[in-house]
Amino acid sequence: MQVFRIEGGRRLSGETEVQGAKNSVLPIMCASVLCHDEVKLTRCPVISDVYAALRILTSLGCRCRLEKGCAVIDTRTLSSSDIPDMLMRLMRCSMIFMGALVARTGECTLSFPGGCELGPRPIDMHISALRQMGADVREDHGRLRCSARGGLHGGVINLSFPSVGATENIMLAASCAQGETVISNAAREPEISDLAAFMRKCGADISGDGTSRIIVRGRPATDLHGCEHRIMPDRIAAATYLCAAAATGGDVFVRGADPRDLEAVTDLLRKSGCAVYEGREGCAINAPERLRAVKTVRTGPHPGFPTDAQAIVMAALSRAEGTSIFIEDIFENRFRHVDELVRMGADIKTEGRVAVVSGVKRLSGACVEAPDLRGGAALCTAACAAEGETIITGVELIDRGYECMETSLAELGAQIKRV
Ligand code: UD1
User: Fold this and answer.
1) How far is the CA of 163 from the centre of ligand 1 (A)?
2) pLDDT tens column, 153-193
3) What share of the chain is helix, strand, coil (3-state, %, to 5)?
4) What is d(CA 375, CA 370) in angstroms, rounded to the nearest whole number?
5) 24, 161, 193: residue to mutate for ligand 1 pocket, most atoms within 8 A of CB
6) b or e along 280-315 (b: 16 or more beta carbons within 10 Å of the residue's beta carbon)?
7) Which atom of ligand 1 is nearest to 49's Cα?
8) Which of 204, 230, 256 is the last residue of a domain?
9) Based on the domain organization, do 367 and 220 belong to the same domain?
10) Domain assignment of residue 371, given as a range
11) Could you tell me if 89 and 172 lie in one domain?
12) Which DSSP letter does residue 293 get?
């Protein structure tokens, strides 16, 4: 078992470079199935979820390699459309293979996906959309069998909620369907635009990404070809290092962070008393010794406050002066980091989707367990600010989304070791 051992209470200072975005590279790897060709992805983060996606692609018959942050995926040799249950459980994003496989091969068999425990994570919108596009989807002993032998067709798909994953699945399925697909109430996250940019390079006809109405004009599957694409910077990893600096009264530059994607987080950091500088090269932060509380942090679909940054910002504000209220509107059970922060001396009370964070003067090191990916990042943030030593178990959950978090934090002066 690996743990992080962090000796906290030091002001973070220095520079680190942000990795490629996990939530962009994973759907793009799924989309590569649509190209009968070779796809090259640069700035590919070296994280365990990427290895999981590579294992799935390999099991489908594709040839893949990952070297020095560059993934090369050749899907010409794809020979199966059946994803084993064990591989589906590795991550939530495995679900996005459904749209791509049905579009390319007319069928696929997979099971319910795994991923972080954030409360119920249904896939009803994914399934309903594929059915509206002409697929027959049946559940059989925990396996989902999808077929559309005659091909998929377009149509107007109204999402009841702007689900990121469902929007991505429909984009992939629609890119080779007959006719035009309009996704209304589509998710507007920047990762959706990165996926659309990748697909356009491959020859797909997609417009409207970044708005809540995405239009996809279907092309024959054989028309989609390979391309080279540089994955967008990871806005949540960038937010993590900015928050770690904020929590410690630090002074940090995150090279490569795109300020346009970070507005909800940087606005909040400014409200809490930090100076944030935004430039073409990245984002810098200069934090006061102690942050000010922020009245309300309410998560919401983009451009709202990202649920993935909720735990991390909470860790930073747990030492702020005053009381901050968090309302989690996306996932039902995304406060599992709270009990661990409380072990470190934080004063946080939760009821349902609300957490009341009364800032304390001091956090102290403790033995804590990462409850999920971003909850784990929140504990690392708190540990940098806490006095004494913190031991964090469950590091494998953090490795799902962060490329060597200990190296990035150490570049900023944190005393952190993977043991
Ligand atoms: C993606 C991100 C995840 C982020 C989340 C919300 C990836 C790989 N993951 O997850 O990091 O936290 O967006 O920004 O990109 N829902 C349904 N039925 C469905 C689909 C979703 O009820 O068929 C609900 C979910 O339970 C949740 C909400 O919609 O309450 C948002 O989920 P969604 O946007 O789909 O998140 P993911 O795509 O799973």
Assistant:
1) 5
2) 999 999 999 999 999 999 999 999 999 999 999 999 999 99
3) 35, 30, 35
4) 6
5) 161
6) eebbbbbbeeebebbeebebebbeebbbbbbbbbbb
7) 8
8) 230
9) no
10) 4-18+233-418
11) yes
12) P
Model confidence pLDDT, tens digit, residues 320-347: 999 999 999 999 889 999 999 999 999 9
Same domain, 93 and 171: yes
Q: Locate tokens 């490569």: which residue?
A: 256
Atom of ligand 1 nearest to the CA of 22: 8
Q: Which atom of ligand 1 is nearest to the CA of 307?
A: 12
Distance 264 CA to ligand 1 centre (A): 18
Residue 298 confidence (pLDDT): 98
Largest CA distance in the chain: 64
Q: What residues are in contact with ligand 1 under a 6 Å CB criterion?
A: 23, 26, 92-93, 121-126, 161, 163-166, 191, 307-308, 330-331
Whether the pLDDT of residue 131 is over 90: the answer is yes
Same domain, 84 and 154: yes
Q: Could you say which of 170, 200, 230 is where a domain stops?
A: 230
pLDDT band at 140 (very low <50, low <70, confident <90, very high): confident
Are 292 and 394 members of one domain? Answer: yes
Per-residue pLDDT reduced to its tens digit, 254-267: 999 999 999 999 99
Report CA-CA distances (Å) from 210 to 164, 189, 335: 12, 7, 29
Which residue's CA is the nearest one to ligand 1's atom 38?
A: 165
What pLDDT does residue 112 have? 84
Residues 401 and 346 in one domain: yes
Alpha carbon of 164 to ligand 1 centroid (Å): 6
298 near 329, Cβ under 8 Å?
A: yes
Please give the distance, rounded to the nearest whole angstrom, from the Cα atom of residue 161 to the centre of ligand 1.
9
Query: Catalytic residues, which ones?
Result: 116
pLDDT confidence of residue 115: 65
In this structure, which residue's CA is closest to atom 12 in ligand 1? 308
Q: Whose CA is nearest to atom 1 of ligand 1?
A: 164
- pLDDT of residue 69 exceeding 70: yes
Which CATH number covers residue 27?
A: 3.65.10.10
Number of domains into which the chain is organized: 2
142 in the same domain as 156: yes
Give residue 251's pLDDT band: very low, low, confident or very high (50, 70, 90): very high
Length of the chain equals 419
- Overall average pLDDT of the 15-30 stretch: 98
Q: How far is the CA of 112 from the centre of ligand 1 (A)?
A: 14
Euclidean distance between CA atoms 280 and 334, whole angstroms: 33
Q: What is the pTM of this model?
A: 0.97
